[in-house]
Write a structure and sequence with these properties.
Largest sheet: none
Structural class: mainly alpha
Order of helices and strands: HHHHHHHH
Oligomer: single chain
Radius of gyration: 22 Å
Strand content: under 5%
Distance between the termini: 39 Å
Number of strands: 0
Helix content: over 70%
């Protein structure tokens, strides 16, 4: 019995896969695609909507397109997009430094993105013209975000590779 116990290897917390391979490759690709998509969103939508002509068209009370929520929504989206872009850059830096805070940061990133999407959708749906133009893509985006959270948050909580990689 004693020799049998000596032959068994004990589990060590760092046994198993480690490094930025495996499923973490998909996370890296996703983070870089997110950066790209946010940059495009900021350049094509956020910045133009803050310019005086578009801002005035949507927020001036005598405009046909006026709605009281346009101003707060535009500001919310601008802050959210720039904030997510900067947070994504920060997360990538921590990711490649293999910091122990990465699992928590990724959970905040995924959960925060989903919450921002839901809040934005709820706000813009209060504007009649947006309701008329809704093609279902916003609901699909929220659904994708929910699925992303359902997959990757448990991964960052349970994965041995994550536990073994982000240790510094």
């Amino acid at each position: 019995m004693e020799t049998n116990m000596q032959n068994q290897t004990e589990y060590h917390p760092l046994d198993g896969p480690k490094g930025l391979g495996g499923w973490l490759v998909l996370i890296q690709i996703g983070l870089f695609l997110t950066l790209l998509m946010l940059a495009v969103q900021i350049l094509q939508s956020t910045i133009p909507s803050l310019k005086p002509d578009i801002w005035g068209l949507l927020t001036a009370k005598d405009s046909e397109l006026y709605h009281v929520l346009w101003g707060p929504i535009i500001i919310f989206e601008a802050i959210a997009n720039v904030g997510q872009f900067l947070f994504c850059l920060f997360v990538l830096g921590m990711f490649y430094s293999k910091k122990s805070s990465v699992p928590l940061l990724m959970i905040i990133f995924y959960g925060g993105s989903m919450i921002i999407g839901i809040i934005d959708y709820a706000l813009v749906q209060q504007i009649p013209i947006v309701q008329e133009l809704e093609d279902g893509s916003s609901v699909s985006d929220i659904g994708r975000s929910v699925v992303t959270c359902a997959i990757w948050i448990p991964y960052f909580l349970k994965s041995r590779r994550v536990r073994n990689t982000f240790v510094q």
